Amino acid sequence: MSTDQLLIIVNPESGNKQNVIDIAASVLPLLKGIPYQLRTTEGPGHAGILAKEFIASGEGTSILAAGGDGTVHEIVNALAFESSSPIPPITLVLWPGGTANALFASIYSDSKPNPAHQHLLPPDTDEQTAYKLKSVLAFVQAYSSGPESRLAAPSRLLNLSYTEILDEKGSTVDKIIAPTFYITALQTIHPPASGERSMEILALRPSRDPGISPITGDGSQRGQFAKDTVGQVLMAAYQGDHYKRSYPDGGPQVLEYYRAGGWEWTPRGEDEPSRLVCVDGTIKIVPVGGKARCTVLGDDSQGVQTPKLRVLI
User: Whole-model pTM?
Assistant: First the structure.
């Protein structure tokens, strides 16, 4: 049995529920000469189980995640928290078949095909499919170049964040690992020092909006802020210009932008909305008197086995 296989994990329920069809039509024809296993998830958490078992089997170290950010989330957390043996470096291939696909968009921000990979595309490939194939094409190109060239292929090592939900005594009641997304454009314009483990923190506060009174601002104002401003910023993030936005008439910048090794969130007393924390698309509730804490994972920080995940570009 080959020990250089690719595991394809297809989530049939994510996004528009077309992943099974899309993978068969657009991805599998490109994998000629590449041994692979094709598995379909059967429920929540199954993607992580499949990834963990595949890596433990020694059959390969490349995983294609056909789904959204939630599928990648399951894979990363299963490898980190549930693997009983050391995890080898893993090549992660992405097919953006989810709803937001934030990780894919942050890595492959340029919608144009890579000229070095364009010869791999069938001539009748439409523009949208060509964009969705960017990660697959990078993998096929590297694989076909041989083992040594594959290791030297252009890639990005994913930084991973580690978030803990702590109770009032400081004990961990929940924990999550997530990729640090690079929709934060200044990561590219002003990159951190080589080897620096950091994350970009973007703060979006209703109190900075001149149209909301810090004293009399009511729920309807804040609701409108969430509907308009937050939605606009999230959409602009996919274009990489969200950090440039300012409020009208010379108002302040919409976003506050920080680079740090982590953050802590301490809710305001028993206020329930302030105890809600969204981590990698999952809503967590901070216990009364507790807090949320997030740090960038090192090679062996927090006693967690940190998967080394690289994405070819």
Answer: 0.85
Q: How far apart are alpha carbons 298 and 133 in whole angstroms?
A: 31
3-state secondary structure the chain: CCCCCEEEEECCCCCCCCHHHHHHHHHHHHCCCCCEEEEECCCCCHHHHHHHHHHHHCCCCEEEEEECHHHHHHHHHHHHHHCCCCCCCEEEEEEECCCCCHHHHHHCCCCCCCCCCHHHCCCCCCHHHHHHCHHHHHHHHHHHCCHHHHHHCCEEECCEEEEEEECCCCCEEEEEEEECCCCCCHHHHCCCCCCCCCEEEEEECHHHCCCCCCCCCCHHHHHHHHHHHHHHHHHHHCCCCHHHCECCCCCCECEEEEEECEEEECCCCCCCHHHEEEECCEEEECCCCCEEEEEECCCCHHHCCCCCEEEEC
- Written as tens digits, the pLDDT of the chain (313 aa) is 456 899 999 999 988 899 999 999 999 999 999 999 999 999 999 999 999 999 999 999 999 999 999 999 999 999 988 888 889 999 999 999 998 898 898 888 777 888 999 999 999 999 999 999 999 999 999 998 887 778 889 898 888 889 999 999 999 999 999 887 655 555 556 667 766 778 888 899 888 888 887 655 566 777 788 888 888 888 887 777 788 889 988 899 999 988 888 999 999 888 888 999 988 878 999 999 999 999 988 765 566 778 889 999 9
β-partners of residue 36 are 6
Q: Spell out the residues 6+ positions from residue 235 whose beta carbon is closer than 8 angstroms to its own.
A: none
